[in-house]
Please model this.
Amino acid sequence: MNLSNLPALSVLSDNITIVEKDGVKLVRVIHDKATAAISLHGGHVVSFKPTDQEDLIWMSQQANFDGKAALRGGVPVCWPWFGRVAAPAHGFARSSQWRIVEHRESENGVIVSLGLEPNEETLAIWPHQFEARLNVEISEELVITLDVKNTDNKAWLFSGALHTYLNVGDIHKTVTTGMGPEYIDGLQDAKVCQGKPSLVLTDSIDRVYTQPEENILVKDEVLNRTITVHNKGHNSAVLWNPWVEGAASMGDMQDDGYLTMLCVESTLHAPSIETGKELSPGESHQLVTRISAQA
Model:
């Protein structure tokens, strides 16, 4: 996603400016190691481009930057739940307005921290007190950490995901390994299935892999690189691609969008709100995804 031509609304530092796209403010990072952009709407990373590489993050050409709908593509923050276990789907974080908490930079890269706290809208959806921080580290690799803390006087349950859309040259020539053998198939009424060690897509996929390895590798034969996805704080990894019919049914995805994307998500999965992870008052949990590419 090219945001280099957008004029700066404000300058935060030598490497960080605030720009605006269709009414949505974004934190734009331009550093010797990489360029990146983070939407304050949704706390949503929309680009990460290491120097001399193609963007590792896929964004829909028809993503709706109206400041209301969740953005299609990038890295949506699904919290305080993942999936359609409650309304809105994937929680409210991905469509809430986040604020800049701090930013730091050095010759090694840039760190941007965003914050989200309860407000009238969140409390109407989910009546709990919390503090959420999204820490985005930008260098030769991208590290996103969702740090959530229970600031309430009682425990609450949650799930979540960093719903990363990876940018690939051609999904037909993309081989994924490391996702593990067992998965819950969302296209077969949550049937538990056993998969093969490597995966090349020929149709839509919506799977929760329950035993992912330390690193999930996405080998891209067209862009001649292997993307490594290293997750922490998760209990599963979700792989998703809507394929032909799914892409055509989405108003915010171009019909051929499925050809150049694959979601590989750091996920704290729960089939319902009641089976989510419990966090006691004062406790925190970090969900992390680390993304890099090698030729």
